[in-house]
Every structure is written in structure tokens, then in C-alpha cells.
Amino acid sequence: MKVRIIELPLDFGASRRGSDMGPSAMRLAGLKETVTALGHECGENFPGIPAPVFEFAEEGDPRVKFLAPIVEACSKLAAETEKALEEGCFPLILGGDHSIAIGSLSGLGAFYKKRGLSWGCLWIDAHGDFNTGDTSPSGNIHGMILAAACGFGRPELTGLYGDFVKLDPGSVALAGVRDLDPGERLLMRQAGLRVYTMADIDRRGIAAAAEEIISFFREKVDRLHVSVDMDAMDPMIAPGVGIPLSGGFSYREVLLLSEEIAASGLLGSADIVEVNPVLDVRNQTAGMAVEIAGRLLGGKIY
Length: 302
Ligand SMILES: [Mn+2]
Hints:
Elements lengths: L1 E7 L13 H7 L2 H7 L3 E4 L22 H20 L3 E6 L5 H15 L3 E6 L20 H5 L5 H4 L13 E6 L4 H10 L2 E4 H7 L1 H15 L2 E7 L21 H14 L2 E7 L10 H13 L6
Parallel strand pairs: 1-2, 1-3, 3-8, 4-5, 4-7, 5-6, 7-8
The protein binds manganese (II) ion.
């Protein structure tokens, strides 16, 4: 497989800075070596997509903070993502905070729409990321991105890289959820998303839950995108994230889920976001992110 690493070191979407250093931390943790050791060709867009500088940016509307610079950078990411797919590559997109995913999801949406292919998205996250400017308590765009891709929210986000709904909400599943805002919970229910909270995963066990998630996508879509927010993991294994929340995926659970996704043969692209080296301990979270990437790309023990 040809893997193309696309970096967008942008941390405007969260209230804690530092995830702009995420791509560098993942490089340091051996991402490229991991990808090539699996027998994949590994291309990079290094030095990545240029991100505007935070200290010189205007916050703008407090309900959708830093909308303009996020739209500017994510439009470039959408184009790079689509180009990678057109060239037969597996785009492996590194953030940055989760706001960058409006770029990757928009590029994916454009690519699959042109080819008449259906696609789905597995959102591995402690949060729903299904707020809009009207429901978000913080105004941080990283919590609005999945909603925007599904057509809800500000037109600058929903219409990024083309005025069409990028992702069918009926082809979305979330896993690892353990914190939702009231307005976003309501919108998620209306949109009809499939949600696996940590409690759902505890009840079923990770193997059965993974099987169910994969069957869901197998019945619905031709291709699958996975968006991994490192805050889905338990802070014991991934302390370096903007919003650490107890009760997340264990080391073994997330690797099993990743292996099962790879084995499904549906996966065509992935995002890995919210690695924050400023808050990390000995680059542990970047190391975890690299392990997850390796399993998603087919790495297994035997
Ligand atoms: Mn997220």
C-alpha cells in the first residue's frame, strides 16, 4: 500500500495549545519507520500544510473561535487529501487538534462523491464533536467538526471545499464516547448517529463491539475512514491530550479495535489528532498514536 502522511500542525480549535507539535512528536516516535516496516511505501507532504500562526490570528466570533484561519488551513488539507486519494494513496492525516478533520472529511467527501462510492466514518473519541456554534458551551471548533461534515453548523464549515453534505450521518459510528454536551446529544439523536459509549463497550466487551461496528460499516459503505482522537484512550496510556477524561480505552482494547478495523479491508484513510506533547509524559501519547497507526495499517503480532 502507498501511505501518504499529511501533516496539519494547527491547534486553533481547542482551548489548550500544543497539539500543533503533534506531528513532530509522532515523527520522533517512529511513525515513518513503523509504516515502512509493515512493507508499505511511505510518502510525506513534509513540511506539511502551512498553518497560520496563532499569536497573530484573530479569534473572531466567540461562538466559533478562529473560524477564518481554520477554514483557510483546512481547505488546503481537503485538497491534499483528495489528491492523495486520486493518486492511489492511503492518506494518514496528522493533527493538530480535531478541527483539522473538517479538511480531511471534506476531501474524502469530494473524492467519493465524484466516483459515486459510499463511505463511512468511525469517530474514535471521548466526545461527540457534534456541537454547532449555537450549542457549543466553549466556541471551540474541534467540538463541531463531525456535525459540520454531516451538514450541521456554520456554512463556512459545512460548505468547506464544496457546497454539499460531505458525510451521511447514517454512515457514522462513534466509539469511546463518555462526555456529551446537552445540545450536541440532542442533535446527535436527531441526526441518527450510531454511538458506542464506553459503557456500551464495557457491556459487550471490545471484541463483540468491534465486530458489531465493522458489520455496521460493511452493510452500509464501500470504504471507511477512521478519525482517532487520542482523548478516547484512557489518560493512563495517553496523558498528552487537551481534554483528558478517565475511563477511556485501555491499551489492549484500542489495539484490538484497530487490528479488527484493518482486518475488515474497508479502511481507506485515517486521521490521528490531539497528540499534545506539552501535556505529555516522555512522548508516551505520540508513541501510542504510532502504535495505533501501525495496527490500522495491518500490523499484527503473528
Ligand atoms: Mn475529537
